[in-house]
Structures
1.
Amino acid sequence: MKFAYALLYVEDVEKTLAFYESAFGFARKFVHESGYGELDTGATTLGFVAHKLAESNGVAFTKADARGPAPAAEVAFVTDDVAAAYKKALAAGAAKVTPPKEKPWGQTVAYVRDLNGFLVELCTAVES
């Protein structure tokens, strides 16, 4: 078995794809009119599912709210330049959470929230 997808349930898939393209530089991999879209993010695909599509599958969930606390999950993107990625995300409309900071294990990490309220970690690779 392998980890293939991380899916976030959102109100507007098209708007979310456009935000991730602008804020983080990803390209669209697949979009379907039913309310589903994927980004080309590497080995694991980040996808977005419209609330209506998720509901049609019989899935119960709490909707993310950009005005409330972030959901208890995050997506993380590795970059060599966290400060530049953080500035780019903010310029594209991401909400500030925490600016870049070096962790005790040597990794640099920053946090923003996307337009849906999901937490996005921008970080350097962990040296093992």
2.
Amino acid sequence: MRTKTIIVYADPGHAWAKVSKKELVKLGIANEISSFSYENGDFAFLEEDCDLEKYIMALRAKGIEYKFKENHANRQSKIRNYYHYSKPRVEIAGVDVITF
């Protein structure tokens, strides 16, 4: 079985895991991620204290093995300037459905 490498970015106060937003949808947890996480383009940066755990639990449930690759900076991360994560909008039969 292939092992998934999860890239984690850390600054002196916090850390975030970089994950494709499409993967969050495929795992069925895109609507469970909090606004404590961030997003930029096609990626979510999952907050280490609760959202990363949701992701890890979803990987385990699918039998996916993982390892971490850490990148640590001694200054505040630019991730803190990204938009806060927002739950995806889902379109069904041409009607927008807003998730809460």
3.
Amino acid sequence: MNQVRRTLDGSSLCTGIILIGIGTLILLDRMYIADFGDVVRDFWPVIIILVGIPQLFRRDKVWSGLWLITLGTWMQLVHLRVFGLTWRSSWPLLLILVGAGMIVRALVEGLTRERADERQ
């Protein structure tokens, strides 16, 4: 028998779940069943994190997904003033994170290329 192998697109699945969740929250807010105004006002950077999560499921977009998650997390921590962080005082932290990410990416891609060369 001829079997067809199907693969699941994790990125589309994750994006669909996120959209359903956001749509449900907005619908409940608009129908006056629940009030999410304060939640949106306090946690709007989470949207950036949610945009980055589905990109982790695509090999060609992993790094951009990690950057969005890092940026969203930093913005959320600053917005909520976690650890006393403010926009003015914490931007050096973002520079450190970006620099560390660049180093990690260079190391990972170097190891990946090295392994690919060994296989050939």
